[in-house]
Specification:
- It is a single chain.
- This protein has 9 helices and 18 strands.
- By secondary structure, it is of the alpha+beta class.
- The chain folds into 2 domains: about 240 residues, Naphthalene 1,2-dioxygenase Alpha Subunit, Chain A, domain 1 (Alpha-Beta Complex), CATH 3.90.380.10; about 120 residues, Rieske Iron-sulfur Protein.
- Strands 2-10-9-5-4-3-6 form a 7-stranded antiparallel β-sheet, with no helix packed on it. Strands 11-17-16-15-14-13-12 form a 7-stranded antiparallel β-sheet, with helices on both faces.
- Strand 16 and strand 17 form a beta hairpin.
- The longest helix is centred in the C-terminal third of the chain and has 26 residues.
Length: about 375
């Protein structure tokens, strides 16, 4: 059932989707204090594994140090070079590519070539800028804020999804990213509403259920949508036969969790999909997508094959659905920049309204 009984106002004005001042407020008040999904454990499984990324204009590096995951600004304190420009890899030592300075998991410099020429070092050895990192389920989260709020307090509902199965039960099927010519809120709002499904996804999603079949939950930190997804009977019969090898009792009911401002988890049958939408400019954003499938509690050759094939199948469907959405984002953005309308929101789109209320509380009404 929907929470609202009548249509709702479009809370944010079209100008909010391209205004540079609004964009800066969102960066400082929504994203700077938040936790960010930056990696998954499958990419950091061995000692020395690392990934790099750009977040809020900052180059970051996340690395495995003997089984412990740590995150740093990807900048050497010596002459400001990126420690590495590789997107991911494995290194025996944690060193800067430019002059070979080496660093420990604490961020402190442990080896400086020709160290005598730097004496005396002001305040002792130089250190990297380090950030708080938390591992939950198969995911690695990082905060840019000093002394951030615990992640389970910020997103209690989403952390329950992370903890549903042990991290080793999830196998990464695929990971990819997109660049969209649209404000990040355009992508977020499209993701949380099902009203566009018949027009945009007539073959891939078919329909998303009527009001009696859909459940909306609205909280201060998140929204949840639970819905059936229509699928051919033959698909369900095959899926039920395959999925019992992985996790008996897997549900076909679709569950979408949106952790404000920009994190999404999707759960259905033996799949976990995670997406994060990262602002790049007032009129552009980046989306990173992870798709996982369950491993059997006791794996064998058959279950491994099913996990692998199911992951490939699910990732292919998701890519097709996201491509159908992506086709519309430039038009949505162009419309926002020219619209004279106030806009209106249906009860089916009420999760959009809840998200807009969150943005309004944290930015327009904040001082």
């Amino acid at each position: 059932m929907f929470v609202s009984q009548s249509r709702l106002p479009h809370v944010l004005e079209p100008n909010s989707y391209h205004c540079p001042e609004q964009f800066e407020r969102e960066l400082s008040r929504l994203f700077q204090p938040a936790w960010h999904l930056v990696a998954c454990l499958d990419n950091l499984s061995r000692d020395g594994d690392f990934v790099t990324l750009e977040l809020m204009g900052k180059p970051l590096i996340v690395r495995n140090f003997s089984g412990q995951i740590h995150g740093f600004l990807n900048v050497c304190p010596h002459r400001h070079c990126l420690l590495t420009h590789e997107k991911q890899g494995t290194s025996t030592g944690f060193r800067c590519q430019y002059h070979g300075w080496e660093f420990a998991a604490s961020g402190k410099a442990t080896k400086i070539p020709d160290a005598r020429s730097f004496k005396p070092m002001p305040g002792g050895p130089e250190s990297l800028c380090k950030f708080d990192v938390q591992v939950r389920g198969p995911f690695v989260f990082l905060s840019l804020k000093d002394r951030p709020e615990p992640i389970e307090r910020l997103w209690p509902t989403l952390m329950d999804v992370c903890d549903e199965f042990p991290a080793h039960r999830w196998k990464l099927a695929d990971c990819w990213d997109y660049e969209f010519s649209a404000n990040w809120k355009v992508v977020v709002e499209n993701t949380v509403e099902s009203y566009h499904v018949p027009a945009v996804h007539p073959r891939t999603l078919v329909r998303f259920g009527d009001e009696s079949e859909i459940e909306h939950v609205i909280r201060d930190d998140a929204t949840i949508m639970r819905s059936p997804i229509a699928s051919p009977r033959a698909y369900r019969q095959i899926a039920d036969q395959l999925l019992k090898w992985l996790e008996p009792g897997c549900k076909h009911r679709y569950q979408l969790y949106h952790g404000f401002p920009n994190l999404f988890f999707m759960r259905i049958d033996a799949m976990l999909q995670a997406m994060t939408v990262v602002p790049v400019s007032p009129v552009s954003c980046r989306m990173i997508v992870y798709v996982f499938t369950l491993r059997a509690r006791r794996e064998n050759l058959v279950s491994r094959l099913i996990t692998w094939q199911w992951g490939r199948f699910k990732a292919a469907i998701i890519k097709k659905v996201l491509a159908e959405d992506a086709r519309l984002y430039p038009d949505l953005q162009r419309g926002m920049e020219s619209s004279p309308f106030a806009g209106t929101i249906s009860t089916r789109e009420e999760l959009v309204h809840a998200f807009q209320q969150y943005v309004l509380r944290r930015t327009v009404r904040s001082h």
